[in-house]
Design a protein that fits this description.
With 394 residues, the protein is of the alpha+beta class. The chain contains twelve helices and 20 strands. Its EC number is 6.2.1.5.
């Protein structure tokens, strides 16, 4: 689950991670009031969307309007707010469709001496969180990783212990941080690592992380993803969820207990098991097709969930065919076959449907489908299924 920058910074402040003062606003008048409350000097107006690259992003139909604007007067704040709120911001991470800006963040300015990068993710190979820092703050980390990977410095840490003092010293030496700034880092870096663990984050990124003129370390950004599987421990965080920033079909799927991610292809995939779903997507690509989604109905899928899965798949105007790839383990093939037949009556299949069943009660399941009046293209294995659905959609 993602949250906005202004929400992340409120959590940072509660956790002892230094941030600047700022106020969220939804109208130009609110933005001006926020500017005056912050002292009426230099302020930064920031579009609030669930995507990075806002500083270099531009408003659709207005290439001169950036998603982050430095303002020196109330009039400039009002103009920036009016140019952002309700408009579509396109960044390197949103794709060409962009995201609508529903609110902005008016933040006090500061004296920036240096800009750094800081990010924390889970390194699954090492089975530990890893803190990554770089001297290249304000630049997309993907660009740094591709062009100058030697400028990214990493330290793994034990989540039960946190980032240790010697690790902070190592990173400060590599970043060229000394004196009072190094002392600030000795508090900042362990605090952000504790935050990552305490809130069950899957990603936490600060770009830029700045060292101010008085050698303090401040988070000038807050891009946070929480592990959705751990939200039962943080029910208060659910209040921060902004459904308007999420794909409606993905929200609908989650409400039915389905794991669904919308993609840009034209072949819908209905699969049980995350690994099998990814393999299905891969083999569709291998045979020249483009998957329209990732969809895992789970091992215990019932007729109601399968029906809803078909509704979601067929609601995508780009979907020109559906591949059902089921390995019957917990969910028997007869259960899935019955669900497909029921779904056909409720939803109605208007695109080619290729079905591959394997596993428990597979012969009975295939017989049920063969004897039904559902228009189905059967497949013997996953390769056969991929070839048939790619051919059917072409």
């Amino acid at each position: 689950m993602k949250i906005h920058e202004y929400q992340g910074k409120a959590l940072f402040r509660q956790s002892g991670v230094p941030v600047l003062e700022g106020i969220m606003a939804k109208t130009p008048d609110d933005a001006v009031a926020a500017y005056e409350k912050l002292g009426g000097k230099i302020a930064v107006v920031k579009a609030q969307i669930h995507a990075g690259g806002r500083g270099k992003g531009t408003i659709k139909d207005n290439a001169d309007q950036r998603g982050v604007v430095v303002c020196k007067s109330a009039d400039e704040v009002r103009a920036a707010a009016a140019a952002l709120i309700g408009k579509t911001l396109v960044t390197i991470q949103t794709g060409e469709e962009g995201k609508v800006v529903n609110q902005i963040f008016v933040e006090a300015g500061c004296d920036i001496a240096r800009e750094l990068y800081l990010g924390i993710v889970v390194d699954r190979a090492a089975m530990k969180p890893v803190l990554m820092v770089s001297t290249e703050g304000g630049v997309e980390i993907e660009t740094v990783a591709e062009e100058t990977p030697e400028l990214i410095f990493k330290e793994h840490f034990d989540p039960a212990v946190g980032l240790e003092a010697f690790q902070v010293r190592k990173l400060c030496k590599k970043l060229g941080i000394t004196g009072a700034a190094a002392k600030a880092a000795s508090k900042f870096m362990p605090a952000i690592c504790r935050f990552f663990v305490d809130f069950d984050c899957s990603m936490c990124e600060i770009n830029p992380l700045v060292i101010t003129g008085d050698e303090q370390m401040v988070a000038l950004d807050a891009k946070i993803d929480f592990d959705s599987n751990a939200l039962f421990r943080h029910k208060d965080l659910l209040e921060l969820r902004d459904l308007s920033e999420e794909e409606p079909s993905e929200v609908r799927a989650s409400e039915s207990g389905l794991s669904y991610v919308k993609l840009e292809g034209n072949i819908g995939c209905l699969v049980n098991g995350a690994g099998l779903a990814m393999s299905t997507m891969d083999i569709i690509k291998y045979h020249g097709g483009q998957p329209a989604n990732f969809l895992d109905v789970g091992g215990g899928a019932n007729a109601q969930q399968v029906t809803e899965a078909f509704r979601i798949l067929l609601s995508d105007p780009n979907c020109k065919g559906v591949l059902v790839n089921i390995f019957g383990g917990i969910a028997r093939c007869t259960t899935i076959a019955s669900a497909i037949i029921e779904a056909s009556k409720t939803v109605g299949f208007t695109v080619p449907l290729v079905v591959r069943l394997e596993g428990t009660e597979v012969e009975e399941g295939r017989k049920m489908l063969a004897e039904s009046d559902v228009d189905i293209i059967t497949a013997t294995d996953i390769t056969d299924a991929a070839e048939k659905i790619v051919a059917a959609t072409k």
